[in-house]
Amino acid sequence: MLWGCRMTIIVTESFGELTEAMLVAFETELGVKLPDVYRRFLLQHNGGKIKPNIFDFIDPYAAFGKDRSLIHNLVGIHPTKFETFAKLLAVYRGRLPVRFLPIAFDPFGNLICLSLSGDDRDAVYFWDHELEANEDEDPETMPNTYVIADNFQAFLDGLYDGR
């Protein structure tokens, strides 16, 4: 079991070994230290496919006030793969709230993001691309982000499979 998770977390197809020095360099580039649980997770797994991979999130527009999705891939640190922080940050710059770091994505083009600052630091969000800000709108004020968990550990604890 991973850090007290209720279920065994299995990660496959990772981006290979991630060293502390590589992670510190990434944090320096970001200008922020990542939350400890997420740092340990990255050092152990460095992206890839995760099982279980289904999660619920609070969605005030859904019939029962919540919805669900699944993780297609976790983001990692690697110089040539698409699912890397550098590439996702470049693609989504100006489209996400500035405090958000995309840490995973679902099969439908939506992101799972970690808040790196503010009152909600460490919280994990679902970012719905279909409701994202237009070029003339501020992504900080858009109603397209939904809370999944208060922190990364709670996010992992909430994952489940479809059985």
Main attributes of the structure:
about 160 residues; alpha+beta; SMI1/KNR4-like; five-stranded antiparallel beta sheet; two-stranded antiparallel ribbon; 4 helices; about 20% helix; disordered N terminus
User: Largest sheet, if any?
Assistant: 5 strands, antiparallel
CATH architecture: 3-Layer(aba) Sandwich
Number of helices: 4
Strand order of the largest sheet: 5-6-7-8-9
Tell me, rounded to a whole number, the average pLDDT.
88
Would you identify the CATH H-level superfamily? SMI1/KNR4-like
Radius of gyration: 15 Å
CATH class: Alpha Beta
Instruction: Count every beta strand, where a strand is a DSSP E run of 2 or more residues.
Output: 9
Can you walk me through this structure?
The chain has helices spanning 20-30, 36-45, 85-92, 152-158, and strands at residues 10-12, 49-51, 54-58, 66-70, 73-74, 100-105, 111-115, 124-127, 145-149. The strands form three sheets. The protein has a five-stranded antiparallel β-sheet with strand order 5-6-7-8-9. The model is unreliable at 1-5 (pLDDT under 50). A hairpin with an 8-residue loop joins strand 7 (111-115) and strand 8. It has a single domain (10-158), classed as SMI1/KNR4-like (3-Layer(aba) Sandwich), CATH 3.40.1580. 22% of the residues lie in helices and 23% in strands. The longest helix has 11 residues, at 20-30. It has four helices and nine strands. It is α+β, with helices and mostly antiparallel strands and 163 residues long.
